[in-house]
Design brief:
The chain is α+β, with helices and mostly antiparallel strands. A hairpin with a 4-residue loop joins strand 3 and strand 4 (88-93). The longest helix is centred in the middle third of the chain and has 24 residues, at 358-381. Bound molecules: adenosine-5'-diphosphate. Residues 47, 51-52, 55, 93, 95-98, 106-107, 145-147, 191, 270 line the site of adenosine-5'-diphosphate.
Length: 649
């Protein structure tokens, strides 16, 4: 059969058709889909109609600059046909169509990083769990697009001709790892996707059933969808226009119900969770536009993928322009899905022209402030629901604090934090209201894991005085904090940097008599500090007595004019800092170990045992920071010596 082997690894057969392998991820995806772990099979039709609608949108846009592309047929439409005898169901459109390369690129690979990540996740879940359990939830987060056809079909063919081309093609696959492409002379412009239905998919050969599915899932599609029964050489229309066929965002707000929003959200987001928040608005005045925006419920897999951009669709007077417009919304709102439809941009606006467009800039400003207001309202009125939103998208909003000066104030009222005070998320206003008498800063501690951060020794003194500390565990925190600096007029201050100034703050009920006693100077502490400084030399910046410790003997902190320790660790991890700067070693004079050492330092500052103790104290503090020791062997040896002394018979 095979007579040539072209460079892309495909094979050409005698009739001019070629065989191609699916990309490995597609094969894996098809495996998941065909075994149909997802119970709502009906969605395959939604996906195909959604693709058909996108294809019509694309041609309508392309025809703005090249009218010939749509010549002879510019009434865009989607036709569904079924044939009971042949057991086929077809979704046809007269949109942009696909050429030979498009077929290989789009119907043989997976372009979206999110989908690839999803397949990874499903495959991982499959390893540990029994076949079904994990997958249903995971697949629920994704629209699997075109490939969902294989849930109900054992063979799928796509007959297509790209607008402006003369050659047509037939793509065909049974979903088992390969597809074929052959030329055809009878393809109409657009694409006709034909499903040969599996035995158990009879229900999709029924007009009532199909009409119902279209009404349920695709009523929002703005092109007319018709239904026709074919077979035995006859065609019988059974529905001229199954859907409303008008842009959903242009309909009056009150006429769009929750279900319609849900379906439209699925269409624009390619996700199948539900919108957490829906914003449908019309801006009138100097510039006019309509917006229909959704905040998803779950965070998409690729929200923090470096290539993830804004994917809200831009329309001009109901004509789709692009879903890839960086200038439509700030990137920290990239989790939004939906549509902005402008009345003022010229229809033939090229994507390049959108770059410094003043109209677009005003839309961006207007929409951003609307979204922030809506989030603010949610935060105020439904704090529990808002907490869920915050968990999913908070880290993205924090990017705005860092890079968007204009919206900083509003964003500062939207941020929420975990704190040492309990499990609830806390706003900055709430934090401020709970500040102690004499407390002049908003205290925080940063690290990469909540539990580790909560155990930090530097928090001890704050806990003892009942002073709340914000726990920051998003990497972005280290970047917005220094650039924001204050909330209202209160500065942020890291508890691991600079002196603690805890004395000035009014003690709470939690303070005990012990603490009061400890205020008295511990004898020999100055001698001990001097001895340790001498021994440790350049490996510390300073050694001092600490106000922030109660239980631990020592801790490390950054000096006032140095970068916060966690930031230094992040920078070092990313190769942006060679060495962390020496830190300050703080000693807890209330700790028995320190007061004991102080006593012996007072007697003889040159005691050799003090030298070992100095190194052990520093290493201990490093371990509590979760850092690797520069010389673990030396540490082990000193530790062994000290223990040997304690257990000496
Ligand atoms: P998605 O729609 O999420 O991109 P799909 O797997 O559904 O993923 O489709 C992959 C690609 O195939 C689409 O992005 C589009 O480029 C192309 N495609 C699918 N259906 C059609 C169609 N009816 N007409 C033209 N192109 C299509």
């Amino acid at each position: 059969m095979t007579d040539t082997k072209p460079k892309n690894g495909s094979e050409t057969s005698a009739n001019g058709g070629e065989r191609h392998q699916f990309q490995a991820e597609v094969s894996r995806l098809l495996n998941i889909v065909a075994n149909s772990l997802y119970s709502e099979k009906d969605i395959f039709l939604r996906e195909l109609i959604s693709n058909a609608s996108d294809a019509c949108d694309k041609l309508r846009y392309a025809a703005l600059t090249d009218a010939d592309l749509a010549s002879g047929d510019s009434e865009y439409r989607i036709d569904i046909k079924f044939d009971r005898e042949a057991r086929t169901l077809t979704v046809a459109d007269n949109g942009i169509g696909l050429n030979h390369q498009d077929l290989i690129d789009n119907l043989g690979t997976i372009a979206s990083s999110g989908t690839a990540a999803f397949i990874e996740a499903v495959s991982e879940a499959k390893k540990d769990e029994d076949e079904k359990s994990g997958d249903v939830n995971l697949i629920g987060q994704f629209g699997v697009g075109f490939y969902s056809a294989f849930m109900v079909a054992d063979e799928v063919s796509v007959t297509t001709r790209k607008a402006g081309d003369e050659d047509g093609w037939i793509w065909k696959s049974d979903g088992m790892g390969e597809f074929t492409i052959e030329p055809t002379a009878d393809a109409e412009r657009g694409a006709e996707v034909t499903l040969h239905l599996k035995k158990e998919a009879d229900e999709y050969l029924d007009a009532m059933r199909l009409r119902h599915i279209v009404k349920t899932y695709s009523d929002h599609i703005s092109f007319p969808i018709s239904l026709t029964e074919t077979g035995g050489g006859e065609e019988a229309p059974v529905g001229e226009k199954l859907n409303q066929a008008s842009a959903i965002w242009a309909r009056p707000k009150g006429e769009v119900d929750e279900d319609a929003h849900k379906e439209f959200y699925h269409h624009v987001s390619h996700a199948i969770d539900e919108p957490w928040l829906t914003l449908h608005f019309r801006a009138e005045g100097m510039i006019e536009y309509t917006g229909l925006l959704y905040v998803p419920t779950t965070r998409p897999f690729d929200l923090f993928h470096p290539e993830r951009k804004c994917s809200v669709k831009l329309y001009v007077k109901r004509v789709f322009i692009t879903n890839d417009c960086e200038h439509l919304l700030p990137s920290w709102l990239r989790f939004l899905r939906g549509v902005i439809d402008s009345e003022d941009l010229p229809l033939n606006v090229s994507r390049e022209l959108l770059q410094n467009n003043p109209v677009l800039a005003r839309i961006k400003a207007g929409v951003t402030s609307r979204v922030l207001n809506a989030l603010g309202e949610k935060a105020e009125k439904e704090s529990e629901a808002y907490a869920g939103f915050w968990e999913a998208f908070g880290p993205a909003l924090k990017e705005g604090l860092y890079e968007d000066f204009e919206h900083r104030e509003k964003l500062l009222n939207l941020v929420r934090f975990r704190t040492t005070a309990g499990d609830e998320l806390v706003s900055l206003a709430e934090y401020k209201a709970r500040m102690k008498e004499g407390q002049e800063a908003i205290y925080y501690i940063a690290g990469d894991e909540l539990e580790a951060v909560q155990r930090s020794p530097q928090l001890e003194g704050f806990r003892a005085k009942g002073i709340e500390v914000l726990l920051m565990t998003d990497p972005i925190d280290e970047f917005w904090l220094p650039s924001v600096g204050v909330y209202e007029t209160t500065p942020f201050k890291s508890v691991t940097r600079g002196s603690a100034d805890l004395e000035k703050i009014d003690a709470s009920e939690e303070e005990t008599n012990d603490d009061a006693k400890a205020e008295e100077a511990v004898e020999g502490i100055d001698a001990l500090i001097a001895a340790i400084k001498l021994e440790l030399g350049d490996s510390v910046k300073d050694v001092r007595s600490s106000a922030r410790l109660t239980d631990s003997a020592v801790c490390l902190v950054a000096d006032d004019d140095d970068l916060d320790m966690n930031l230094q660790r992040i920078l070092k991890q990313h190769g942006q800092l060679n060495e962390v700067t020496p830190r300050v070693l703080e000693l807890n004079p209330k700790h028995a170990l320190i007061s004991g050492l102080a006593e012996s330092a007072a007697k003889s500052a040159l005691d050799v045992a003090l030298k070992d103790a100095a190194h052990l104290l520093l290493d201990q503090a490093r371990i509590m920071e979760g850092e690797a020791l520069p010389d673990p062997t030396a540490y082990a040896k000193r530790m062994a010596d000290v223990m040997a002394m304690a257990y000496r018979k």
